[in-house]
C-alpha cells in the first residue's frame, strides 16, 4: 500500500467517523425536539437546543419548589402525628384511670353488698367494719329507716354507726 492510497483510506475513515458523529448529534437533537414541549413548533437545531435548556431550568425550579413543599408537608405531618400520639397517650391514661376507678368502685360495692348481706342474716352476729374513732357529728334518718351521719356512715334499723345493735341516735 502506497502513501497516496494510505492517505485516501485514512481520509475515508475520517469521513465515516464524522458522518456517524453528526448522525448521533442529529438523532439526539431530534429526540430533544420530541421530548421538550414545543411552543413555537420550530424544527431548527438551535431553537430545539434553546427550548431544551429553558425546559431543564423550568424542571429544576419545579423540583426545588416541590422539595420545599414536601419538606414543609412532612414537617407538618410529623407535628400532627406527634399531637395525635400525645392525644392517644392522654386517652389511654384517662382510660386506665377510669378502669382503675371502676375496679375500686366495684370492689367497694362488693364489700358493701357483703356487709348488707351479713347484717340481715339471723344465723349469727353481724360482721361490721371497725368503729370509727371520730364521733359522728349528726345523724339523720332516711325514709327507708336507715340512719346516715355527716361522715357518710349509714346503718339500718336499731344499729348505731359502729354497726352494733342498740339505741338509735337522735335526729334533731
Descriptive report:
By secondary structure, the protein is mostly helical. Helices cover 63% and strands 5% of the residues. A three-stranded antiparallel β-sheet has the order 1-2-3, with no helix packed on it. Strand 2 and strand 3 form a beta hairpin. Helix 1 crosses helix 2. The termini are far apart. Residues 124-139 have low confidence and may be disordered.
Average residue pLDDT:
79
Helix-strand sequence = HHEEE
- N- to C-terminal separation? 143 Å
Helix content: 55-70%
What is the general shape?
rod-shaped
Total DSSP helices: 2
List the uncertain runs. Answer: 124-139
DSSP E strands, number = 3
Strand arrangement, major sheet: 1-2-3
Helix/strand/pairing class, anyone?
Answer: mainly alpha
Major beta sheet summary: 3 strands, antiparallel
